[in-house]
Design brief:
The protein is an alpha/beta fold and 231 residues long. The chain has a single domain, classed as Rossmann fold (3-Layer(aba) Sandwich). Helix 1 packs parallel to helix 2, helix 2 crosses helix 3 and helix 4 packs across helix 5. It is globular.
């Protein structure tokens, strides 16, 4: 991944600081980033979900990430195994696509370790983001804090496969508290992988059947109108 010299510090009064984070009661001071801060100008949608995802879930996350990238959105996720990784990879492989990964460690550390190459690719053409100082390793309480940044940065959060007790549900709750849209992909009632998604839908989340279900709820800024969107 990129060296510590490539890490930039942004403060709330910086021009490049993502203003959506100011909706939080405790916005990061400072925010550490690697990559192009101009990408914060793109409208963003988060895709999150199970680390232990099914092949179907990985496929759905990838297809949604591709579609959102094509529509001009920055795809945000948490660099975790499963759904997060699938969304990041699909966005990176989309023509001109961009993705932002919010980590639960310092930017000179990568968790999980097997995502080091993925993190390096994101740092090169997208954005790596953290509120934790370089050298800081993973701690259990870091990840709920990471989730609030994912929610705040995004216009909406899409949950693909989440069990009844899932960190993705924390992200969805935080998104609701911040006035963001929440979307959930339904799954089989025979699989515990989607119990959290079904609960979200029962409580008012938008059911996602197609990409259009997401785009219809968001102010779409397409490649035809936004200078940073994919060509």
């Amino acid at each position: 991944m990129r060296t510590p010299n490539a890490i930039q510090l942004l403060y709330p009064d910086s021009l490049a600081y993502p203003k959506r984070l100011l909706d939080l009661r405790d916005p990061p001071r400072p925010l550490y980033i690697c990559g192009n801060p101009a990408l914060f100008q793109l409208p963003a949608v988060a895709i999150v979900g199970s680390r232990d995802a099914s092949l179907q879930g990985l496929y759905i996350a990838s297809e949604l990430a591709k579609g959102l990238s094509k529509a001009g959105f920055l795809v945000v996720s948490g660099l975790a195994r499963g759904i997060d990784g699938a969304a990041h990879r699909a966005a990176l492989l989309s023509p001109g696509g961009r993705t932002a990964a919010v980590g639960g460690t310092g930017l000179d550390r990568v968790y999980p370790h097997e995502h080091r190459a993925l993190a390096a690719s994101i740092g090169h053409s997208g954005l790596l983001i953290s509120e934790f100082a370089p050298g800081m390793g993973p701690r259990p309480f870091h990840f709920p804090r990471r989730n609030r940044l994912i929610a705040a940065l995004s216009l909406g959060v899409v949950v693909v496969e989440a069990a009844a007790r899932s960190g993705s549900l924390i992200t969805a709750r935080l998104a609701t508290d911040l006035g963001r849209e929440v979307f959930a992909v339904p799954g089989s009632i025979l699989s515990g992988r989607s119990e959290g998604c079904h609960s979200l839908i029962q409580n008012g989340a938008k059911l996602v059947h197609t990409l259009g279900d997401i785009l219809s709820e968001l102010p779409v800024l397409t490649h035809q109108t936004h200078p940073l969107a994919p060509k």
